[in-house]
Amino acid sequence: MPKQTTIFVCSNCGQESSKWFGKCPCCNEWNTCYEEKAITSKIGKSNIRKEVEPTPLTKVEKGLSTRISTGFDELDRVLGGGLVKGSLTLLGGEPGIGKSTLILQLSNKIKGEGKVLYVSGEESAEQIKIRADRLGINNENILFLGETDIDVIEDVINKLNPKLVIIDSIQTMYSEEIGSAAGSVSQVREITNRIMKNCKQNQVTTIIIGHVTKDGNIAGPRVLEHMVDTVLYLEGERYFSYRIVRGVKNRFGSTNELGMFEMQEKGMVEIDNPSSVLISERSEKKAGSVIVSSIEGTKPLLIEIQSLTTPSIFGMARRTANGIDYNRLTLLIAVLEKYTGLPLGSQDVYLNIVGGIKINEPALDLGIILSAASSYKNMPLPLELVAIGEVGLTGEVRNVNMIEKRLREAEKLGFKTCIIPESNKKTLKDNYKLDIIGVKNILETMKILGLK
């Protein structure tokens, strides 16, 4: 007869222990320990072992994964060409960001024959129907199942053999074999493991939706992201209409790809040229504004950086960053003050990435420094200028990758001048309809633009 034992589990990483702990020995997080019942069996393991032989890698035949188009070109690009048949994809995002809306539209657009099974443990059939009517979806191939028991869900999947299964959301599903409540580490891990086995054995493409914590990470143990084939994050500010689908893990394609959508009354609408949208309202010269070029995955993206400097009232200068890392901003302001002599120690500096998106690429460094200097000097930068370059702690402008793609994107959108690192300029082979200026350090850059 199975024996019940008590174990202590970390809600952050899933680490199990026979004793209570205040700080997890695996992920070093505090107060993440909780108690749950585990079932162990007294029956010993069988001595029978399968005989397997390793295969030389040179004799393994390379197969082609079957791709299924989602109906969204931007989403297909993030996925590496579409959903792979029999794959397991995890989509995470904040509540109300548009996860269910995007997936419902995908259910209507996805190519191929067969049914789509939409399993929801959070919403009723009436709620899903109201959303479908708003989105103009009237598809008989979309079947709804309001269920949270994984045993029932597996029986329905095996009976229907659908082309796509959607689980909304993984935190609401439970298994009777696990004594803990739905959403616990053990339940999430067990449910994901069973869904993964089912989709691999039956070659059923599956998408599971997950909640995120206040830190922006998908709720549940970190092992959840390791179990699935693809992890997508739907990002964006609630009060902005733009949404970004970012791939952070993909076993069938490149990672850190980015697709941009706009939330409209009729649902998610993909944006083919995000650069033109993000800089569309920049029509006149303003101090503190500059255009920079970022690479998200393989796609170049032109975005606007705005800075504002004002005298500090409280005696201790503030630094506020929206869209980039706060520590990166303070570092660059210190470099700017050290090597150009601008007295920013008595100035509050506020920086914003227009459009509500978040960028972590170091190629934005030069643009951040120029926008802060422009705001302090109250001298607008040229409208047709793009700044590209990483800035080091000694004030040098260092080279960046994929410079050709960045320059082609700037050229396509009608910009006339690009300031890039001197080391990148020496490697250029193609001809551009741009005035390309190579710089070695930030002091030289500011002298060229008249900021020094």
General description of the model:
This protein is of the alpha/beta class and 452 residues long. Helices cover 26% and strands 27% of the residues. It has a 9-stranded mixed beta sheet with strand order 8-7-9-10-6-11-12-13-14. It has a 7-stranded mixed beta sheet with strand order 17-18-16-15-19-22-23. A 3-stranded antiparallel beta sheet has the order 2-1-3, with no helix packed on it. The radius of gyration is 26 Å and the shape is globular.
Helix count, DSSP H or I runs of 4 or more residues: 12
Which sequence of strands runs across the widest sheet?
Answer: 8-7-9-10-6-11-12-13-14
Q: Characterize the largest beta sheet: strand count, sense, and whether it forms a barrel.
A: 9 strands, mixed
- Mean of pLDDT: 87
Secondary-structure map with pairings?
Layout: E1 3-10, E2 16-17, E3 33-40, E4 67-68, H1 73-79, E5 83-84, E6 88-93, H2 99-109, E7 116-120, H3 125-134, E8 142-146, H4 150-160, E9 164-168, H5 185-202, E10 205-210, H6 223-227, E11 230-235, E12 242-250, E13 258-264, E14 267-270, H7 274-278, E15 289-296, E16 299-311, E17 319-322, H8 326-340, E18 347-353, H9 365-377, E19 385-387, E20 390-391, E21 397-398, H10 403-412, E22 417-421, H11 422-425, E23 435-439, H12 442-448
Helix pairs in contact: 8-9
